[in-house]
Amino acid sequence: MSSDGENDEFLYEDAYDDAFDQDDEVDDLDSMSEPDVYDALSPAIEEAPQRKPYDVSWKVKTLQEIIDMQTKEISKIQSVLEVPPSSAAILLRHYVWNSEKLQEQFWNDPASALEEAGLSPPSSPTTRTSTLPPSPTRRTTRSLKAGPSTSLPKRARSINTGSFECPICCMEFDELSVPSQTYSMGCEHRFCKDCWKEYLVVKIKGEGESAKIQCMESGCGRVVREEVIDDLVEKDVSRRYHNLLNAAFVADSSTLRWCPHPNCEYIIQCTQAPPRMLNQLVPTVECKCGHDLCFGCGYAASHRPVLCKIVRLWEKKCADDSETANWLQANTKECTKCQSTIEKNGGCNHMTCKKCKWEFCWVCMGPWSEHGTAWYQCNRFDEKSGIDARDTQAKSRASLERYLHYFSRWANHEHSAKLDGELYQKTEKKMEQMQNSGNLSWIEVQFAKQAVDVAIKARVTLKWSYCMAFYLKRNNMTELFEDNQRDLERAVETLGYSLEQSISDTESIAKLRQDITNQAAYVQKRHDILMDDTLKGYLERRWEFSVDI
Amino acid sequence: MASTSTRRIQKELSDLMNSPLPGIQVQPDEDNLQIWRIIINGPSNTPYHKGKFQLTADFSKEYPFKPPTLLFKTKMYHPNVDSDGNLCIGLLKTENWKPATKMSGVIQAIYDLIENPNPDDPLVSSIAEQYTSDKKGFEKKAAEYTSKYAT
């Protein structure tokens, strides 16, 4: 769900496509590294029309594009450093694709840069397999190349009669089978191909290792090259290996993130939300699969307006306190008047007891009549009642109560948002009914569906607003936040109530349509106000939290 | 690859029998070559001196592509060995394990660890703390354990 209204997504598309397509050609490097200085209010962002200062631009990439990005980087480094492509790849992976740092280190001391990355030349003193038999026919008969060692002086290979014993499996290989049955990298630690294969399968399939698979010799840091692995293992293992390499590339980059939604293979690229900006940005983005995600933390939905760190704290807290909170999630409550058990089966918090007709609020269980007045207090925890707690036991009870106050509202909106999904189906039926009995066209009844969308979106935002409020310090700003929260909550409840009204006659349909349309527009407006004010508040450093962000 | 595993274990065993490591005895389980009993004599100039420390090495079917599991059977007071006999040693960790590493190298590394505890990477932090702050107290306790459990 986009939290910024439906029209905005089209604006984003245009804005970022233009901005990035040019960039891509000229300077792909920049998109790989974090921008040094980022100012959320910089002119670059204001240039894009109607983009909010707290929004980020992003691009959705395919796996092939991610592969191409790597190939491009590799060939760049390959030509600059004059090394074989597979060496360039190993170097880049070792330096976490930071090509500037790599070049700096390389030109500073090529030998140690190569060795650190696992490309030590054969002349370097590594422990060598004692039974290593040199093979004169090696280079011509083997399909595998030893990479950079080709440019280095070949070792004197005296013809050593006798067989080779693989140090791993202790199998003997006669002189003739050594070239085809065994393999050694530039470090010249020779092992039989079956052992290589087994080792690579264990590393790739068993341990999920990819970029840093080393020689099998103890103490040898030489990294096995891509083409060597592809040549030695079966196709499925090789495929897995390349998937792991791509996954590592995405994971290593602070500007890339996999879409977290099941079966989605897209990757989001965003250069405007580096980790250090996450104390003032909530970079919600939308994947091409149609789902929202947070680029900052990978949360598989929008958690606006709450910062990633606060979401993490909240989720942890909720997991820890889940036992005490469990009862709150129960779906039934008793009517405060007649004690009938009531199951909440719709999204609206305005409850009317079927038995005694008592109207009350599902969240605070207070009479609904009070919610209609300016004395509406349901969204705000009365801190005063907690203050007179004197001893520690009372204090911890107060803090639990405070938490439960916010948690119950958070959980309640989550529950309601889910129930509103069911409301969709009910609404569809109602829309049919309206078309039949109210002589309205299909287009004319779409307002109901749109209103449900607005209500669900508002409930998700409200849900997170309670998490936010839990961590906010009490001050004037927080009061304003809670005022906005209250206004949105009231608007949503009113809309939710209207959406659940049954349809009787043509006249009431016309009125209901008018009401719902107006109420939905009002909810949208209150939603945008809360969102806009909260997100801007981060940039203006208006919010003070009880935890360190 | 059971045959690889067996062949390799046999080869290593015969190597260790032919040229034994000083102060170390290795004996496979009577009816299972995949389990070895290893006895290490406590290094001199350490509180473990005169103690005999028994370990078991358990080889999986994936050996040598997966590391063997080593466990102390003799109680010892050491920052890198816990009360269950688990020991913390880099080259035996799955991600660091190299198939070409021989048991002789593993045993040597364990011997070195007994001789020179590594308090920076402890398994029992209380012992590590004592080792760095109160070496005398540590040595006394370790010697006590040695005479009580390892002789």
TrEMBL record, chain A:
Keyword Cell cycle carried by entry: no
CDD domains tied to this protein: Rcat_RBR_HHARI-like (cd20356), RING-HC_RBR_TRIAD1 (cd16773)
Gene Ontology MF term list: ubiquitin protein ligase activity; zinc ion binding
Top enzyme category: transferase
Catalytic activity as recorded in UniProt: [E2 ubiquitin-conjugating enzyme]-S-ubiquitinyl-L-cysteine + [acceptor protein]-L-lysine = [E2 ubiquitin-conjugating enzyme]-L-cysteine + [acceptor protein]-N(6)-ubiquitinyl-L-lysine
EC annotation from Swiss-Prot or TrEMBL: 2.3.2.31
Domain of life: Eukaryota
All residue ranges annotated as the RING-type domain in the record: 162-382, 166-215
Composition bias type Low complexity, residue spans: 119-132
Pfam families on file: Ariadne, IBR, IBR_1, UBA_ARI1
Region of interest (Disordered), ranges: 114-156
SUPFAM superfamilies to which the protein is assigned, alphabetical: RING/U-box
UniProt record, GO biological process: protein ubiquitination
Residues passing through the membrane, by range: none
PROSITE patterns noted in UniProt: TRIAD, ZF_RING_2
Protein name according to UniProt: RBR-type E3 ubiquitin transferase
From TrEMBL, chain B:
Enzyme type, top EC level: transferase
Any GO MF annotation of the entry: ubiquitin conjugating enzyme activity
Domain of life: Eukaryota
Segments forming domain UBC core: 4-151
Record InterPro entries: Ub_conjugating_enzyme, UBC, UBQ-conjugating_AS, UBQ-conjugating_enzyme/RWD
Active-site residues annotated for this sequence: 88
EC number: 2.3.2.23
Alphabetical keyword list: ATP-binding, Nucleotide-binding, Transferase, Ubl conjugation pathway
Claim: ATP-binding is one of the keywords in the record: yes
Family, as annotated: Belongs to the ubiquitin-conjugating enzyme family.
Protein name from the UniProt record: E2 ubiquitin-conjugating enzyme
